[in-house]
């Protein structure tokens, strides 16, 4: 019976999925003992743990109250944004709520009344924790997608920033970059920063609402179209220089540089229809724990790895006290299927 249980536990890592558990109690010829594996937390909806900042001051609509209209209804400018009225306010937190009733709730900027001065807004998301993206970042715009925007990322809690992806209806004109598609990238260019025209062209504001940062398409370069061959992806993440870091962020920033124009030039006589409205920002990822934890919990306002393998720190990035600090190494996905724990000594 005990033997059976041990056998069962021993098989657990394979049964529950790759890298899901950090250790199991097994029986060997020398008696029962712990066996250790490389492990990582499950992917989570990261918008539930984020802190947001919108810049510059005064970019959110409604203070003072203002009227706006939509590209579909450009001469009926009777909609109102009023920050002091909960029913008419559009604060940043509405980009992260869950829209239970199916009604879109959104952050909205002021209108482009100061045209031709550019209408610029930064939306900065901070986690105070390294996150590994596991799925696409999806940003939903309610009244048309920006004709020019940029996504930036930080790996050091906002001290330094790097371009992540450029978006424009004309990449050459906006950024002097040729337009590319993530689908056309190859194994050697999977972490290339590119400009795409796929998410910026006018197609009616209700038809095409989302702007993506394509994580799945990049994973598919290694794991195949249905991400069936994850082993190959994990092997590449381990060996290809910079690939793992490419999908790791502590902060993200959307730099909105020019709003939707409704498919035409800017009409100066009606600037009330130009603004940004974001209803959702979906970020799916897992805490980076250096393959030393399978749990990540939200404590005192920040995500923290529950470190195993005698490691400690927010990312399990060092050895516990009384363990040789120089023996620290990240766990490894290899050899397949259970990887190496690389525990502190
Ligand atoms: C947005 O952030 C960038 C740096 O990432 C900064 O240069 C720019 O001035 C900011 N724009 C606004 C409107 O705050
Ligand atoms: C960030 O996380 C660390 C470690 O959990 C914590 O000590 C620190 O107070 C956090 N900083 C902020 C600004 O939340
Ligand atoms: C961590 O250290 C304890 C003793 O302090 C030991 O029993 C345990 O096996 C160690 N774990 C690993 C993964 O080496
Ligand atoms: Ca919302």
UniProtKB/TrEMBL annotation:
<dbReference type="Pfam" id="PF00055">
    <property type="entry name" value="Laminin_N"/>
</dbReference>
<dbReference type="GO" id="GO:0009888">
    <property type="term" value="P:tissue development"/>
</dbReference>
<feature type="domain" description="Laminin N-terminal">
    <location>
        <begin position="35"/>
        <end position="286"/>
    </location>
</feature>
<dbReference type="InterPro" id="IPR008211">
    <property type="entry name" value="Laminin_N"/>
</dbReference>
<feature type="signal peptide">
    <location>
        <begin position="1"/>
        <end position="17"/>
    </location>
</feature>
<keyword id="KW-0424">Laminin EGF-like domain</keyword>
<keyword id="KW-0732">Signal</keyword>
<dbReference type="InterPro" id="IPR036278">
    <property type="entry name" value="Sialidase_sf"/>
</dbReference>
<keyword id="KW-1015">Disulfide bond</keyword>
<dbReference type="Pfam" id="PF00053">
    <property type="entry name" value="EGF_laminin"/>
</dbReference>
<dbReference type="GO" id="GO:0007409">
    <property type="term" value="P:axonogenesis"/>
</dbReference>
<dbReference type="InterPro" id="IPR050440">
    <property type="entry name" value="Laminin/Netrin_ECM"/>
</dbReference>
<dbReference type="InterPro" id="IPR002049">
    <property type="entry name" value="LE_dom"/>
</dbReference>
<dbReference type="GO" id="GO:0009887">
    <property type="term" value="P:animal organ morphogenesis"/>
</dbReference>
<protein>
    <recommendedName>
        <fullName>Laminin N-terminal domain-containing protein</fullName>
    </recommendedName>
</protein>
């Amino acid at each position: 019976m005990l033997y059976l249980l041990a056998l069962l536990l021993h098989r657990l890592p394979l049964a529950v999925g790759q890298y899901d558990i950090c250790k199991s109690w097994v029986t060997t010829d020398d008696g029962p003992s712990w066996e250790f594996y490389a492990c990582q937390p499950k992917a989570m909806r990261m918008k539930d743990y984020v802190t947001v900042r919108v810049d510059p001051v005064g970019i959110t609509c409604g203070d003072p109250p203002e009227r706006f209209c939509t590209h579909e209804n450009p001469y009926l400018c009777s909609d109102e944004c009023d920050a002091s009225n909960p029913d008419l306010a559009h604060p940043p937190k509405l980009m992260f709520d869950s829209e239970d009733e199916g009604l879109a709730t959104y952050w909205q900027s002021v209108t482009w009344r100061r045209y031709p001065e550019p209408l610029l807004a930064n939306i900065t998301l901070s986690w105070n924790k390294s996150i590994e993206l596991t799925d696409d970042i999806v940003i939903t715009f309610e009244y048309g997608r920006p004709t020019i925007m940029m996504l930036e990322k930080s790996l050091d809690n906002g001290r330094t920033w790097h371009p992540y992806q450029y978006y424009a209806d004309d990449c050459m004109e906006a950024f002097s970059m040729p337009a590319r598609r993530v689908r056309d990238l190859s194994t050697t260019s999977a972490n290339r920063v590119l400009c795409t025209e796929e998410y910026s062209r006018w197609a009616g504001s209700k038809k095409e609402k989302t702007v993506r940062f394509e994580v799945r398409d990049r994973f598919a370069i290694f794991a195949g179209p249905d991400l069936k061959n994850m082993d190959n992806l994990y092997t590449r993440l381990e060996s290809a220089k910079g690939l793992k870091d490419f999908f790791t962020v502590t902060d993200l920033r959307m730099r909105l540089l020019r709003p939707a124009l409704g498919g035409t030039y800017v009409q100066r006589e009606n600037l009330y229809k130009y603004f940004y409205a974001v209803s959702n920002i979906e970020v799916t990822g897992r805490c980076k724990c250096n393959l030393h934890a399978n749990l990540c919990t939200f404590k005192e306002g920040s995500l923290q790895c529950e470190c195993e393998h005698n490691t400690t720190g927010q990312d399990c990035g060092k050895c516990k006290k009384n363990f040789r600090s120089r023996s620290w190494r990240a766990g490894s996905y290899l050899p397949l299927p259970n990887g190496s724990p690389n525990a502190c000594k």
